[in-house]
Structures are given as C-alpha cells and as structure tokens.
C-alpha cells in the first residue's frame, strides 16, 4: 500500500505495514509459534503487561495493558508519541514483546504472526497506508478478504449496507475518495474477513467534524452489533463519550484506566487531556 495525502501529515509515519525491513513490520517470513491457553476470567481480548519496542531499540511500551470485553468499545487516548500505535501493533503481532502476553477469545496468541492473528479473528486498520489507493474500492474489499476462499459477496453487501458511500464508489479508485470515505473503505476492508474483533488506529484522522460523527455512529453500530472494537482516537472527549473502557497512555505506560465516564470525571484527566 502506498501513501495517501489525507494521512500524510500526522502521527506515526513509519509506513510500517509496507516497509520490508524495519522492525514493527509485517514480516511474512516469520513463522507463528504455538497457541496457548487463555486464563479464566479473561476479557475477550487482552494485551497484558506488554513491554517491548522496535527491533533491538529501546522499550516503547512499559508494562502496558489494554483489554476489550465482548460487544464493547475500548479506546486508547494519549499525547502524540505516547505509544498508542505501538500498543496496537503489539496486540496485532507486529512487535516482539519482551514481556507480557496477548490473549484472544480464550487463547494465548502471543506467538502468532499478524497473518495468523487475522485468521484468529483480528481485523486491523492501521493509522497510515490503510488502503490501496490505485485499486478500486471493490478491489480493496476483495484484497481485504484475502484469507477467505468462500463466497464473499454477502459480506460485501453487509459492508455496503453499513457504508452506503462505499457502495456508491465501488468502481472508483480508492485514492480518489475523500478522507472520510477512504477511512470507510479501510474499515470495510478490515470487516471483509468477518473478524471477531475490530482494531482501529485513529479512524477519524483528518476528517471533518460531521464526517467524524458519522464514523463514530457507524463504529458504535458495529460494536452494538456484537463486534468488540478497540480504537485509538485523537479526539479524546468524543472517544471517551462512546467508550465502555478508556485507556490513557503516557510514555508507553498506562496513566489512567476506567470507563469513559470515570475518566471524563477525573480531575487530572480533564486538566491534562480534555482541556479542563
Ligand atoms: N517503526 C518504528 N521504529 C522505531 N521507533 C518507532 C517506530 N514507530 C514509532 N516509533 C517510536 O515509538 C514511540 C511511540 O510512537 P507511536 O507511533 O506508537 O505513538 P502514538 O501514540 O501512536 O503517536 P501519534 O499520536 O502521533 O500517532 C515514538 O517515540 C516513536 O518515535
Ligand atoms: Mg499513532
């Protein structure tokens, strides 16, 4: 996937889904290790006590824990460079953790590579380079379904129902779409595998407030439809409004954790992250 202007100017620009070598990338030669057992009382997804960084570099995450319950929305917020995207990549298997584990739906998947995590039910929309701009919208969705060998037409119709704009533009090159429509295509692409967990890194980056509200509505609909959502969001206030669980990360550590309501009522969180 190559760059797209709408995302060019913010956040982590490491293009890590495509870079062939720097660590934190999807290395297709990396074999998965064995799947272990989950633990009693686990949430649907938990990245627990994750410590690790990129390649042989310093640790970016320090004992960081992120979890999502079935049917809920969990959000990660925090300042630029706090490690939000790194936490998502760690959960998705793009970093080798030095400590901690990732468990999904009763299984320990810490040793799985990203491709096998997709097979295990993860759908991931990275912060950047999350569509193929030169392919049509429909081709993007077909690419999204790469792990499936059954009939994908029903899923495509469901995605079109969820995002009518995506249906309208299906024959158009994805790169020609507006920022908001591209984000819809990116989310749609991730849904094509019929994931059991949807992970979104800043899905509303670079879109207007109206489009942002629409995207939030769709994400809430997805979660209420039974698909748990873990998302990073730069609009902290809106994010906490819709969050069942919210995580504030600072310098790779859990700074605050609670329900969206709890964190919005927390004096320090308000002062530091919500502008008073
Ligand atoms: N591929 C990489 N290789 C080495 N260091 C990286 C890489 N990607 C990110 N980092 C470093 O990890 C730290 C956390 O970055 P990360 O992208 O996870 O932050 P973030 O919270 O997602 O920030 P933003 O809000 O800007 O998206 C930063 O110091 C960053 O420079
Ligand atoms: Mg980021």
UniProtKB/TrEMBL annotation:
Region (Disordered): 1-43
Pfam families cross-referenced by the UniProt entry: ABC_tran
Annotated PROSITE patterns: ABC_TRANSPORTER_2
Key words of the record: Amino-acid transport, ATP-binding, Nucleotide-binding, Transport
Domain ABC transporter, chain residue ranges per copy: 45-276
SMART domains listed in its UniProt record: AAA
InterPro entries per the UniProt record, alphabetical: AAA+_ATPase (IPR003593), ABC_transporter-like_ATP-bd (IPR003439), BCAA_Transport_ATP-bd_LivF (IPR052156), P-loop_NTPase (IPR027417)
A GO MF term: ATP binding
Gene3D superfamilies to which the protein is assigned, alphabetical: P-loop containing nucleotide triphosphate hydrolases
Record-stated family: Belongs to the ABC transporter superfamily.
PANTHER family linked to this entry: BRANCHED-CHAIN AMINO ACID TRANSPORT ATP-BINDING PROTEIN LIVF-RELATED (PTHR43820:SF7), HIGH-AFFINITY BRANCHED-CHAIN AMINO ACID TRANSPORT ATP-BINDING PROTEIN LIVF (PTHR43820)
Name by which UniProt lists this protein: ABC transporter ATP-binding protein
